[in-house]
Structures are given as C-alpha cells and as structure tokens.
C-alpha cells in the first residue's frame, strides 16, 4: 500500500518527490496501443487531502445535486486502520474531515463525513465516505463540482492522471494493462490497473483518483506499488495470472477500478449491495 507519512517523507528526503514504489508483471493484455486523442485539462478541483492519504469528491452518472456528496479513497486509508481480508464495513459512523482543493491545489474549505458508507480491502481497496453536505451545497459555497465515476471498464493504453490531494501533485502516464489477481500480504485484489512506469507514485498518494485524461472521469483509485522487489508482501504486491504464475516488477504502481462502484449506489447516493449488477463484497 502507498503508506501515508512514514514511507512518503523518507522517499522525499532521499529522492525528492519522485521516488518510485510499485512493481508489476507482464501479461499479453499489458501491451498498450499508442493513443493520439487530445487530452482534457485535469487539475485538483474536487480532490481532497485526508490526514494520511488522498481522495476525491465523486458522483455517479445519476447522482442528483440534492444527494449527500461522497468522498472516495482507499480502504487502507480508514481512520481505524486496515480492514482485515474478508472484512467489509458498511454504514458506520464517522466524523472524518477532508480538505477540499480548488483547481490550483489550494484549500478552499473543510468537508466532514457523517458515515463510512462502504469500505473494504477484499477484491478491491476502496472507501466511500458520506458527507454532511450535498453536491449543490459544495458547489454553491466553494464553486467545486464533484468528479464523475465512469461506469465502464477502463481500457489499456488510456492516458491517465493520478491526482494526489495530499501532495498536491499530478502524475501522468498510461494504463499499461490489467492484473487478474494481485496479492499484497493477506489481501487479494481482482482486475487491478497497472500503470506505465512514469506514474511513480509515493506514500500519501493512496486514494488519489485516477482520471481518464480524455473524458475527465474517474476510472480507478490509486492504491499500491512494489517498492523493493519483494513478492506478495506488504508494500510489495505481486501479480498472479489465471494459471497461478506469479510475477513481480519493482517500481511499477497500481490502482483499483471504480466502475464496479456505480451499480451499487442507488437513489440518494445510498449504498445498496443487493442492487442488480452490484458485485462489491458484502459483509
């Protein structure tokens, strides 16, 4: 996982803000085509800084202005610590605060949660906080719109931006491919996104939205990388293919897809794990 402060500050001291952590493995689908599509301007508007991670205010394609806003980050960024493998948290009280950023990365206000709507590190690594303000209230007070979650599976070769509210830094690269299973310590994730090497994210970038540079939509959430070449250990995830073959590539980083979240959010931005098409793990 992209540790917040300890690994991040050490990395900055040793190598500036560009130390690379993660590792990946090769697979046939990893070959990314060259894209010539013009990119969209991606900035910090709508991203947030947590006490230990990054995140973003997000909406589904059908969310209403009157709905309570949601903040997306990683499951391993929870204030209570890492959820255990197999653990799912749903509708739990929280009073966590988030620093809301504008397009230039300046803090414009503080948002507060009243619930952890959903969080897990099983199959994926996500947390969704429900805020005390609606999208309309955030827009009216701060002039900031939520980022929209893409409801389709991302595509290899897509130009992306990983936007860290914690470090106020934007990483640019492409989606290199997808990982059938990725293991890190006790946790296993499905169909993870692998970046090309220029997204050398560091600790504190956990929870950053991964934004399609063409559409401006969120396609994944940044979560880990192989820091020292270890295999399947904490901070050293490994890739596992359909045949059980394990591959490690030091210095390559990863994210978890977010299109799977969309079918699980119903009217009023309520998490409903029984909705048609919802495949997120249940408690």
Unreliable residue runs: 5-37
Largest sheet data: 6 strands, antiparallel, barrel
Discrete helix count: 2
Q: Taking all residues together, what is the mean pLDDT?
A: 90
Q: Domain count, please report it.
A: 1
Strand content: 35-45%
- Radius of gyration over all CA atoms, rounded: 17 Å
User: What class would the helix/strand composition place it in?
Assistant: mainly beta
Q: What proportion of the residues is helical, as a percent range?
A: under 10%
Order of helices and strands: HEEEEEEEHEEEEEEEEE
Q: Please state the overall shape, judged from the principal axes of the Cα atoms.
A: globular
Number of strands: 16
In the sheet with the most strands, the strands line up as 1-2-3-7-6-5
Q: What is the terminal-to-terminal distance?
A: 22 Å
Summarize the structure.
With 283 residues, the chain is mainly beta.
Task: Note down, in words, how this protein is organized.
The protein is mainly beta and 283 residues long. The chain has one domain (1-283). It is built from two helices and 16 strands. It has helices at residues 6-15, 135-142; strands at 47-49, 54-59, 68-73, 88-93, 97-101, 107-120, 126-134, 147-148, 159-164, 169-184, 187-195, 209-212, 218-225, 238-240, 246-247, 253-257. It has a six-stranded antiparallel β-barrel with strand order 1-2-3-7-6-5. A hairpin with a 5-residue loop joins strand 12 (209-212) and strand 13 (218-225). The protein is globular, with a radius of gyration of 17 Å. The model is unreliable at 5-37 (pLDDT under 50).
């Amino acid at each position: 996982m992209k540790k917040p402060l300890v690994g991040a500050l050490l990395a900055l001291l040793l190598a500036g803000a560009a130390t690379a952590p993660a590792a990946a493995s090769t697979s046939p689908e990893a070959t990314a085509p060259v894209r010539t599509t013009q990119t969209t301007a991606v900035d910090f508007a709508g991203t947030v800084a947590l006490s230990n991670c990054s995140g973003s205010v997000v909406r589904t394609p059908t969310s209403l202005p009157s709905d309570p806003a949601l903040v997306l980050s990683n499951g391993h960024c929870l204030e209570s610590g890492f959820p255990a493998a197999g653990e799912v948290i749903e509708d739990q009280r929280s009073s966590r605060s988030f620093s809301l950023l504008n397009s230039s990365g300046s803090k414009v206000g503080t948002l507060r949660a009243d619930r952890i709507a959903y969080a897990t590190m099983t199959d994926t690594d996500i947390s969704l906080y429900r805020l005390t303000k609606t999208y309309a209230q955030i827009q009216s007070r701060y002039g900031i719109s939520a980022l929209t979650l893409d409801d389709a599976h991302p595509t290899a070769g897509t130009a992306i931006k990983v936007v860290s509210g914690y470090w106020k830094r934007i990483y640019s690269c492409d989606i290199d491919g997808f990982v059938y299973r990725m293991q890190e310590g006790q946790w296993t994730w499905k169909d993870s996104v692998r970046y090309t090497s220029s997204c050398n994210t560091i600790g504190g970038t956990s929870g950053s939205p991964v934004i399609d540079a063409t559409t401006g939509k969120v396609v994944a959430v940044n979560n880990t990388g192989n820091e020292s070449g270890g295999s399947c250990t904490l901070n050293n995830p490994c890739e596992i293919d359909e045949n059980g073959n394990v591959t490690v590539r030091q210095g390559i980083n990863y994210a978890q897809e977010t299109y799977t979240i969309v079918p699980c959010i119903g009217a009023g931005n309520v998490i409903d794990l029984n909705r048609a098409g919802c495949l997120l793990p249940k408690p």
